Automatic annotation (TrEMBL):
Listed cofactors: Zn(2+)
Annotated residues for binding of glycerol: D130, D180, H263, H281
SUPFAM superfamilies in alphabetical order: Dehydroquinate synthase-like
Residue ranges occupied by any Alcohol dehydrogenase iron-type/glycerol dehydrogenase GldA domain in the UniProt entry: 17-163
The protein, known as: Glycerol dehydrogenase
Length: 377
């Protein structure tokens, strides 16, 4: 389940959504983009997002004489939830599945669309992950433990990002998306170096590499200004750039560029119980990225460049920050073992054991603690 089936592993493969639209008030035009896909649509959003954007999306669809059945998402991208919503969509006879919200809603919408062989329309309401563009979903148990990836034969048909809505979301979400996107180049370059496979099922194209690299460049340039823009609930050129980096560049860059250790370590963290479950995907990925950097050979300046950006955005950099200060070596080994299970993406870039990963977790934690001490006023 974790790897896309592929016959000739050395082929370069690049995949992407058919259309990506981003801008202030972009949702106002959604009916125009969707109207040629089919008349029967379903709109999936959780309770919070119905108020923020779901109702607006439905209004715009109705203005174009499209039917729109409203579905409330339960909160977990699990097989149970995917099956429940697939039943509703099948009964409604709808062919256009529109997901509105955060990563879990979008992953569920993609899964449902695949089940009914439909058209997938993705409307992220935060720039918190790079889930919107990919042809895969991350599936969890009903209790939120990582179970695996589901792969689809196509990426979403349309992605519409309204930056006014993204600017109104909590700044923590944007920071999380920045962390998810900062992992992109770190992971892609490690897969490229090792000649590993990407989530698209082949090796990395020059396009995939260039996009992943540009993603990181954009973030180091504009992440802080974009974060301040969201504090002010304002759409600015810096925010537009970072939303594109978090969503489009990171999405294409991770899927066709390659995932390595950072995401495998994130997946490992979901195996633990406790307060770590309150951390966002991007926050766990931030720490996972530092662990990947600790597994690699970098000088202090390079590692501190990442720690500096993370801390300036309020992202976690130590075990204490992710509520694992008191975790036993046994717990850390549990994470490391889950991160190195067969089929995990870490093996596309590294030849390491669970023990090596556990050492890197402690090293990353110590690097960040030393950085904090050095910079404490
Ligand atoms: N499929 C992929 O390629 C891919 C890539 C990255 C991450 N993911 C997955 O994405 C998930 C994480 O997504 P997430 O971090 O967005 O969290 P999430 O989907 O769990 O939660 C998002 C939360 O934000 C709220 N929200 C959404 N928009 C809002 C707004 N504008 N204002 C206020 N609140 C708003 C929602 O109500 C929800 O409670 C994980 O399951 C992860 O594995 C998938
Ligand atoms: Zn991610």
């Amino acid at each position: 389940m974790k790897k896309r089936e592929c016959f000739i592993m050395s082929e370069r493969i690049f995949i992407s959504p058919a259309k990506y639209v981003q801008g202030k008030n972009a949702i106002q035009n959604i009916g125009e983009y969707v109207k040629d896909f089919g008349e029967r649509t379903v709109v999936i959003a959780d309770e919070t997002v119905w108020e923020i954007a779901g109702n607006d999306v439905v209004d715009k669809l109705k203005q174009k004489n499209l039917e729109a059945e409203e579905i409330v998402f339960n909160g977990e991208a699990s097989e149970t939830e995917i099956n429940r919503i697939t039943d509703i969509v099948t009964k409604a006879g709808a062919s256009v599945v529109i997901g509105v919200g955060g990563g879990k809603t979008l992953d569920t919408a993609k899964a449902v669309s695949d089940e009914v062989n439909g058209i997938a329309v993705i409307v992220p309401t935060t720039a918190s992950t790079d889930a919107p563009t990919s042809a895969l979903s991350v599936v969890y148990s009903d209790d939120g433990v990582f179970e695996g990836y589901r792969f689809y034969k196509k990426n979403p048909n349309l992605v519409v990002v309204d930056t006014k809505i993204v600017a109104g979301a909590p700044p923590r979400f944007l920071a999380s998306g920045i962390a998810d996107a900062l992992a992109t180049w770190v992971e892609a370059r490690s897969v490229i170096q090792a000649g590993g496979d990407t989530m698209a099922g082949g090796t990395t194209t020059i396009a995939g590499q260039a996009i992943a690299e540009k993603c990181e460049e954009t973030l180091f340039q504009y992440a802080n200004l974009a974060y301040e823009s969201v504090q002010a609930k304002s759409v600015t050129p810096a925010l537009e750039s970072v939303v594109e980096a978090n969503t489009l560049l990171s999405g294409l860059g991770f899927e066709s560029g390659g995932l390595g250790a950072a995401h495998a370590i994130h997946n490992g963290f979901t195996a633990l119980k406790g307060d770590i479950h309150h951390m966002t995907h991007g926050e766990k990925v931030a720490f996972g990225t530092l662990v990947q950097l600790a597994l690699e050979k970098h000088d202090m300046k390079e590692i501190e460049r990442y720690i500096q950006l993370y801390t300036s955005l309020g992202l976690p950099v130590t075990l204490e920050d992710i509520h694992l200060k008191d975790a036993s070596r046994e717990d850390i080994m549990k994470v490391a073992k889950a991160a190195t299970t067969e089929g995990e993406t870490i093996h596309q870039a590294f030849d390491v054991t669970a023990d090596d990963v556990a050492d890197a977790i402690y090293a990353a934690d110590q690097y960040a603690k030393a950085y904090k001490e050095k910079h404490a006023k």
